[in-house]
Write a structure and sequence with these properties.
Two copies of one chain form a homodimer. Chain A has 205 residues and is α/β, with parallel strands linked by helices. Chain A is built from eight helices and five strands, in the order H-E-H-E-H-H-E-H-E-H-H-E-H. A five-stranded parallel beta sheet of chain A has the order 2-3-1-4-5, with helices on both faces. Chain A is globular. At the A-B interface, helix 1, helix 2, strand 2, helix 3 and helix 4 of A face helix 1, helix 2, strand 2, helix 3 and helix 4 of B.
């Protein structure tokens, strides 16, 4: 492998630097890439909102991708559990993959509880200011527990799931996220509209 | 987080399944996505070839991305060393990230020694037959050692790098790669042309 700085010529080979960069991919895509990082309690609506947002953006010819439990926990992070250390490594890897997708020109959305401030900060600090849009899906624990689409809160209350966020493990609310969406007070359409308004205002889309 | 199968409605929330899939992204991109997996000795020209290929493909409006040591070893895999176990985990993660990029509609190229058959098989088996194009960058150890753009062979010979592929750790040649490119007998332009011919023949691009 040649690094970016290698420029070596011999009889048969010229070493090439990369010639295609994020800006070139954005130009091809005709839009900027970005990371929209949804955080919040289980059942706060992160994945729902990410997929509903993706639907709208795709219809506007934006090149989108959603990282969520469905494509991360069974794949890249299948070796990780739910201890604090594993949660940290999980979020670190998601941050790194988001960065790669960002560089690939993709408008990436992530939908993970990501309960710890320091882990979200690690993901944020991987990229340039403005590329990371943290959106807090704010819903009361009561609401989330009432929804409980997978029965996880029930299991957690029964002590069957250790270190469950909101029950036996803390959720650290973002102090200054780019956006707060009260997902227990608005329907999905309204939530999506709020995100799109923000992205348009900031000229991200 | 809601899984693909959750469809729950309450007063304020409708749970959405994903509505944008790989085929939709490929339709937007106007090309298929694929994984081109370059394997071969250090200095066999994998990264060079990947970047030269990317240059050509990008000019054809193909949405490309290269995974190589420069963006993986300092990021996603910075916790890994070069033991057999760490090499295996390194390749596993690269395979998983390639799969995510594939799903995101990206034409992804990887440039890693990936010396072990079983690890390359793990990466191959993550995706559907036809999505994984293994290209063996074949160059003699003698040639690679003579090139030695980073002085790694020299260090390995001096015993300063343990488990260096070709010197103190084996390189297992692919038995039935999609393509073999003799990178010590052709210049970069010829190598790229060989890859492009293959991709066109197979109607991948």
């Amino acid at each position: 492998m040649s690094s970016n700085n290698d420029k070596i010529t011999n009889k048969h080979t010229v070493w090439h630097d990369p010639t295609v960069f994020r800006a070139d991919r954005e130009a091809l895509n005709k839009h900027k890439s970005a990371i929209v990082w949804f955080t919040g309690l289980s059942a706060a609506g992160k994945s729902t909102l990410a997929h509903a947002l993706e639907d709208k953006l795709h219809k506007r010819s934006i090149h989108t991708f959603v990282l969520d439990g469905d494509n991360i926990r069974q794949g890249l992070c299948k070796d990780l559990g739910f201890s604090d250390a594993d949660r940290e490594e999980n979020i670190r890897r998601i941050g790194e993959v988001s960065k790669l997708l960002l560089d690939a020109g993709v408008f990436v959305m992530t939908a993970f509880i990501s309960p710890f401030k320091k882990d979200r900060k690690i993901a944020r600090d991987l990229v340039t200011h403005g590329d990371f849009i943290e959106i807090y899906c704010k819903a009361s624990l009561e609401t989330c527990e009432k929804r409980d689409p997978k029965g996880l809160y029930k299991k957690a209350r029964a002590g069957e799931i250790p270190e469950f966020t909101g029950i036996s493990s803390p959720y650290e609310e973002p102090e200054s996220p780019e956006l707060v969406i009260e997902t227990d007070k608005k329907d999905v359409e309204q939530c999506v509209a709020q995100v799109i308004n923000y992205l348009e205002e900031k000229k991200i889309i």
